[in-house]
Amino acid sequence: MFALITGASSGIGRAMAFELAKKNYSLILVARRESELKQIKAKIEESNKVEVIIKVMDVSSVKNCEKLHEETQTYQPEIIINNAGFGQVGRFDEIDLGIELKMIETNIIAVHTLTKLFVRSMKKGIILNVASIAGMLPTPLMASYSASKAYVLNFSRAINCELRKSRSPIKVLTLNPGPVVTEFGKVANTKQKMQGMSADKCAKIAIRDMLAGKKVIVPGVMMKITRFFLKLLPVSWIMPFAYRIQNRK
Question: Catalytic annotation on 151?
Fold first, then answer.
């Protein structure tokens, strides 16, 4: 069986690739950085009896998403992990518009396109869309990022409900991590103040819960507690607190 992972060259995507290889899934790894993908392929194939195919591609392009879908049909992947994405911390009126539009293309349009294409073509399986705990709350100083992840979360939950009602053998699930030790902070132009979970631990929880069919995956006890209070307290109370956290970054 094949699993396809976008944003697989580092962070959670890379860690999920190793976790799935341990479970004997062959892999289609997608990212922009060829050298990193080749290194991951060599390491995985060295210690696991699985096939690893790499696709050097920027999925922020709809044409590339369509090309990726077409090129992987022969492998009939049964797991699709839409992990590619990035964020940016700062005031909305100061962040470059081009960066925000690229973020929307990567975090929303790519996820939407690949989910649409694979839901239509898969006979059975799981699509795991990577959102964020930030997608559960309007987050000042991460306005565009948190909104993009809210889209991923709500979009995925709604589609999963539709598929259940139609008795489809396909599930669309979401992973909603909190702070994780990855390249996110460097790309987002921020310094991480909160001790993050390791990417390996996050990936282990993500793959375990994904294979168990959990609809909304929130790794870590602290993030589960955070989610509880996000449901309980008024947004108007939480946003000033979220602003202070982001402002310290």
Answer: no
Local structure of 137: helix, strand or coil? coil
Q: Is the dihedral of CA 46, 7, 189, 206 positive or negative?
A: negative
pLDDT of residue 218: 96
Count CB-CB contacts under 10 A for residue 6: 27
DSSP secondary structure letter of residue 7: S
Instruction: Label residue 184 by pLDDT band (50, 70, 90).
Output: low
196 secondary structure, DSSP code: P
CB 8 within 8 Å of CB 30: yes
Which residues are CB-neighbours of 236 under 8 A, at least 6 positions away? none
> Which two tokens mark 27?
């892999």
Q: Give percent above pLDDT 90 in the chain.
A: 80
Q: What are phi and psi of 222, to 5 degrees?
A: -65, -35
| Whole-number Å distance between alpha carbons of 176 and 163 | 21
Which residue range is the domain that position 243 belongs to?
2-248
| The total number of structural domains that make up the chain | 1
Report the CATH number that the domain containing residue 196 is assigned in CATH: 3.40.50.720
Closest by CA position to 215, among listed 169, 172, 181: 172
Would you put residue 7 in left (φ > 0), alpha (ψ -120 to 50) or beta? left
Please report which helix (H) or strand (E) contains residue 158, including its range: helix 143-165
pLDDT reported for residue 230: 80
Cβ atoms of 6 and 59 within 8 Å: the answer is yes
Which one of 25, 75, 145, 151 is the catalytic residue? Answer: 145
